[in-house]
Design a protein that fits this description.
single chain; alpha+beta; 5-stranded mixed β-sheet; two-stranded antiparallel ribbon
Length: 597
């Protein structure tokens, strides 16, 4: 980094009884109060270079030999004033990016211009700023960082604007080949060309300067959108966790939520500023980053418009999301759920609206045959994203199903938010329903039926069917459907398609409307998923039930057709499986004998 030295005399300032003075044979005749510091100096060297002090002394003549002057609210305080005073005495001072802003503001305040003396301090500082500071990358960044105590003066003097313009011009000149990090080798900056650059350095800026810099980069149109996105990620990871780590939600007396930390407003401003800087180009920002911002927006209670914009952007790339990304904490006092279900429903609704809009637009624009073929190809892409989102939703349902505060209506709404055709396999959906039933044992019979209406038994794997057949929490009709479709599947595999087996019909007739699913014993039955992972189905319970009870509605008596012994449901369904399979095998053997004859 560059620096400039002015003056040649040694520093002779000293402290005496709380007063700053300078060693000199000449008697002091000027007292200057700068904020809380008192200086005992001389009129001649200071008034010859400072128009401000000349005017103050002429306006308030003193009868005694000491002239007292007050400089309240001096920019940069006593440190900046002393630097200007040393320049007037010819004492050596060093100017760099770390102090040029305070020095320039102080010199301007004292009016140390060319009008009173050639080669005055303001002129020398301007030359150094234009020739050295603005030409150096790190110098510009440091100078911008030091403008915080001098926001108004820096704007009036054009320091902030010129530094931002210099930074932007350097980024635009070669945005992807210059390194982000700078190491010092003497006075020369060593640049690592293997890294994306400017993001780390400008992430040191406070949010208002960062926003202006990034907005200028975006408007220039020469920096790729993905690099803008990378820079925003760097800034967010550096500042948002630090700001929001100690935030706590507390309930106020009027029942509204408040953010206890004093940093909340700063955090919210930072987040909303980052949202406005997001590139609009498709796929320029990753879905996981958008969802991270959405989580922060929820916690920080950002504006509704910011959250809606993020939800809209997430919906455009929802097929890229992971289940963990959707686990957005709920902070609403109106909901006891762990995660915010409404915002996920909103994202899914936007996703479906966008897909429908794409389909409608494609049908309107594609009139001829070739365009229709192109439309079909586009449709397959849309269906592919639908399949991914359906799997995502089922995974999300499995996570929230353990929350006892998740209402049945919300769970069903989430499950039905995706078209039926988008689910190629219903194993994940079945697992979510199974966990929900176990976590909500007080559901009525009609509620359990309503919950299972989205489940398509034909799309369950063999392992899932085996588990469902023994699941005491499922409605009986669902269990029978599982048995029937598995029977049909086995029959078709052997070249036969038969009707519903008699034993299943007997079960349905005997059971009627079903009884309470709750059991007292447990069965350790572990089933692997069709994908071959090591997850296990939730272990079902079993109860003992009567197999064939025929109730007479007239006299209220019950007639036991078979044995009155209680048979475990698991054993009963296992026998049904064996009977179905042996029946099919016997038919197959008979056909072979006939063919041989």
């Amino acid at each position: 980094m560059k620096f400039m030295k002015l003056g040649s005399r040694p520093d002779t300032f000293y402290n005496a009884n709380g007063v700053r003075s300078i060693s000199s044979e000449v008697r002091s005749d000027l007292v200057v109060h700068v904020n809380e510091t008192r200086y005992l100096l001389h009129k001649f060297p200071l008034l010859s270079k400072c128009v401000k002090l000349q005017r103050l002394c002429s306006e308030n003549p003193e009868s005694s030999h000491l002239h007292i002057t007050q400089l309240h609210d001096f920019p940069g305080g006593s440190k900046a004033f002393e630097l200007c005073a040393k320049f007037c005495y010819g004492i050596t001072i060093t100017i760099s990016a770390y102090n040029i802003v305070s020095a320039l503001c102080a010199a301007k305040y004292l009016q140390m211009t060319e009008d009173v003396e050639k080669g005055n301090l303001v002129h020398k500082l301007e030359v150094f700023f234009n020739s050295c500071i603005l030409n150096g990358w790190k110098d510009c960044i440091v100078t911008l960082q030091t403008t915080k105590p001098f926001k108004l003066q820096s704007e009036e003097l054009g320091i902030t604007t010129r530094c931002i313009e210099s930074v932007v011009s350097k980024v635009i000149s070669n945005p992807s080949k210059v390194s982000l990090s700078h190491s010092q080798n003497g006075d020369r900056e060593v640049i690592d060309t293997n890294k994306k650059w400017w993001g780390e350095d400008i992430s040191e800026l406070r949010i208002d300067l960062y926003w202006r810099t990034m907005a200028a980069l975006k408007s220039g149109g020469k920096v790729p959108a993905n690099l803008i996105s990378d820079a925003l990620k760097i800034y967010t990871s550096k500042w948002l966790p630090k700001i929001s780590r100690n935030l706590k939600i507390v309930s106020s007396s009027n029942g509204e939520s408040e953010l206890e930390s004093s940093k909340a407003n700063t955090s919210r401003l930072l987040l909303e500023s980052i949202i406005t800087l997001l590139p609009m180009e498709t796929n320029s920002v990753s879905c996981s980053f958008l969802l991270k911002l959405l989580k922060a927006a929820n916690v920080l209670q950002a504006s509704a418009s910011s959250r809606l914009e993020l939800a809209r952007r997430v919906a455009l790339q929802l097929d890229e999301a992971k289940v963990c990304d959707l686990m957005i904490p709920s902070i609403s006092n109106d909901s006891d759920t762990i995660y915010d279900l409404d915002i996920v429903l909103n994202i899914l609704e936007q996703f479906m609206l966008q897909k429908q809009s794409q389909k409608t637009s494609s049908l309107r624009t594609n009139g001829d045959r070739e365009c229709q073929e192109s439309s079909l190809s586009s449709s397959s892409t849309i269906n592919g994203s639908m399949v991914k989102v359906a799997k995502l939703v089922d995974g999300y349902l499995q996570e929230i199903s353990r929350d006892v505060n998740v209402s049945l209506s919300k769970f069903i709404s989430l499950g039905e938010s995706i078209p039926e055709l988008a689910r190629l396999n219903h194993d994940d959906l079945y697992r979510a329903i199974d966990v929900y039933l176990k976590s909500h044992p007080d559901l009525t019979k009609s509620e359990r039926k309503h919950l299972c209406r989205t489940l398509d038994c034909k799309k369950l794997s063999f392992e899932a069917c085996m588990h469902a057949a023994q699941n005491e929490f499922l409605p009986l009709r669902v269990v029978v459907q599982v048995l029937f479709f598995e029977h049909a599947r086995a029959a078709m595999a052997n070249g036969h398609l038969t009707g519903l087996p008699g034993n299943i019909k007997a079960l349905l007739a005997a059971k009627g409307n079903g009884t309470s699913p709750h059991g007292s014993e447990t069965v350790s039955t572990n089933m692997s998923t069709p994908q071959g992972d090591h997850e296990q189905w939730v272990k079902p319970t079993k109860s003992r039930m009567k197999l064939a009870v025929d109730e007479n509605p007239d006299d209220g008596s019950s007639k036991v057709k078979q044995s009155s012994c209680l048979v475990p449901r698991r054993r009963m369904f296992s026998r049904l499986w064996l009977m179905n399979r042996s029946e099919i095998e016997n038919k197959s053997k008979a056909e072979k004998v006939v063919n041989c004859e």
